[in-house]
Amino acid sequence: MTHLLGLTGSIGMGKSTTAQMFRDAGVPVWDADATVHRLYAAGGSAVDPIAKIFPQAVIDGAVSRPALNEILHADDGALKTLEAVVHPLVKAERDAFIADHGSDLIVLDIPLLFETGADGWLDTVLVVTAPPEVQAARVLARPGMTQATLDLILSRQMPDAEKRARADVVIETLTLDATRQAVQNLIFDLTGKQHA
Q1: Number of domains in the chain
Q2: 109 and 22 in a common domain
Q3: N or C: which end of the chain has fewer CB within 10 A?
């Protein structure tokens, strides 16, 4: 039986780094964002269905995220229409990944885990966190990031405190060594095995 571990966390909390630690330990990791990028790219299975509902969002045979975002901002109902097309495609990709990776543990990296109700079908939910000042320092170190942009992103995400309250497991990502050890401990707790 495969244990499905959901991984989420707000921007700058160390989710990508933590996902890589699971990969380094030999645990398969499915990335929801990377899947959507593939679906939106030229030849991706979301391009034609999105072209039918939002033709102006498809440029040069691929879904343009800026164009799509303009549509979503202008029309309150557009997001539900888009999700009705994209969510089944994402689910099909996720199901195929799980079927292809016959592992005792699979990590599913899902930024909007709680917002999309994924906590209802996952076996365990892991939230990564860090103090707000650490989070802000990490995000503001990214190229082109401003405090105003960070504030806007945070206003659209479920608050960290709520994510932590709903999580089965919380890992604080203050140092790489402590985070790596917490990942190793969690893998052992869920599988009874030490991974590489």
Answers
A1: 2
A2: yes
A3: N
Task: Work out the number of other CB atoms within 10 angstroms of the CB of residue 147.
Answer: 10
* Whether residues 44 and 82 fall in one domain: yes
* pTM exceeding 0.85: yes
Here the tokens at position 72 are 């979503």
Give the torsion sign (CA, 84, 90, 96, 99): negative
Helix count and strand count (H, E) for the chain: 9, 7
- Shared domain for 60 and 144, answered yes or no, is no
Domain of 53 in residue numbering reads as: 29-100
- Give dist(CA 178, CA 146) in Å, integer: 29
pLDDT tens digit sequence for 71-120: 988 888 888 899 899 999 999 999 999 999 988 999 999 998 998 899 99
Grouping H, G, I as helix, E, B as strand and the rest as coil, residue 158 is: coil
Helices (H), 65-175: 65-74, 78-100, 132-140, 147-156, 160-166
pLDDT in tens, 155-164: 878 899 999 9
From 129, 142, 132, select the one nearest 178 (Cα to Cα). Answer: 129
